[in-house]
Design a protein that fits this description.
Length: about 325
């Protein structure tokens, strides 16, 4: 039986319901819950999504490549395609459509002049033959709160106080200021997501949808000093992001978190960039921390060494 012909096109808003159905069918972790609907409402960029369809219009494969902004200290912002949602419908699998579509999308991104593209792989072995290599890494600290951060905060410390936000987006402007100072300090991330207050409001809303909260430290003049984006579950505390103006502020903030949660959920996982300065508030002698690969990169219009140098030490998360 001859293989069916496939047509390439960009998606439109009208494709969203069918694409949501394909996403749920392709990614088991997203089949239940609100994530897929949220993603297409908040993150989907139809003009940056390419499809292979049958002549009858059935969507056979998709590749979403939304643009994100990366900032390097003392340099211009850089828009980079961040490839997501590479998937093939079950009836069309086994024909190499994902590789074909990905190659076509990369050629289009090259034509548009992007230096490289990024992705966070679910299966690195799928992307390595296409020329993708890991470019960013994270540190994961596995901590028992009964053994670390046990010191209590003083009953009254006039130049340091904490605010809990169950609606984290309310602290978007303060978090953006901490993040800016954290990323620009000596030893901070060499490249990082360009987050303006509006970007932070969206990210913090995303975090809230995952059941997340924000703990913010301020001084007596209301200046923000540090924050932690965290989620408390029955299995333990997960700190997705810890940013600070100075390390001692983050240490105080972590002590407060430990005091609140160590009796109920003593296990904690804390994520940090793979950078000694960014991880300074965390236990440096702890044997339990490990370096984990995070995102992959493929050069498009720039030489590979230049692309990897731009992203070495970068800090960002899946949805920035």
């Amino acid at each position: 039986m001859p293989k069916p012909a496939y047509l390439l096109r960009q998606s439109t808003d009208d494709d969203a319901p069918a694409l949501q159905q394909l996403w749920r069918a392709s990614f088991a972790e997203d089949r239940e819950g609100p994530f897929v609907e949220w993603y297409f409402n908040q993150r989907f960029q139809p003009q940056n999504c390419w499809l292979l369809t049958t002549p009858q219009g059935e969507i056979a494969a998709m590749c979403h490549a939304p643009l994100v902004n990366i900032q390097q200290p003392e340099s211009r912002k850089l828009a980079v395609p961040y490839i997501q949602g590479v998937a093939t419908a079950a009836a069309h699998q086994g024909r190499g459509l994902c590789h074909r579509l990905l190659t076509t999308v990369e050629a289009e991104l090259t034509r548009q002049g992007f230096p490289f593209c990024l992705l966070k792989p679910s299966d690195p072995a799928f992307y390595e033959p296409q020329g993708y290599r890991f470019c960013t890494y994270l540190r994961q600290y596995n901590i028992d709160l009964n053994q670390h951060f046990l010191e209590h905060l003083p009953a009254y410390e006039p130049d340091f106080y904490l605010q809990h936000y169950q609606k984290p987006a309310k602290a978007a402007e303060a978090a953006a200021e901490v993040y800016r100072l954290w990323c620009s300090q000596p030893g901070g991330p060499a490249a990082f997501a360009d987050r303006q207050p509006a970007d932070f409001a969206r990210l913090l809303t995303d975090h809230e949808q995952d059941g997340g909260q924000l703990l913010l430290a301020r001084n007596a003049n209301e200046q923000p000093l540090a924050y932690a984006l965290y989620t408390a579950t029955a299995k333990g505390l997960f700190v997705r992001e810890l940013a600070f103006v100075q390390p001692q502020f983050a240490e105080k903030l972590l002590r407060a978190l430990a005091a609140d949660y160590r009796e109920d959920t003593p296990a904690a996982v804390i994520i940090s960039p793979d950078n000694a300065a960014c991880a300074q508030p965390l236990p440096q002698t702890l044997a339990g921390w490990q370096v984990l690969p995070f995102a992959m990169l493929k050069p498009l219009t720039k030489p590979a060494p230049e692309c990897y140098n731009m992203m070495r030490g970068a800090h960002f998360y899946e949805y920035f």
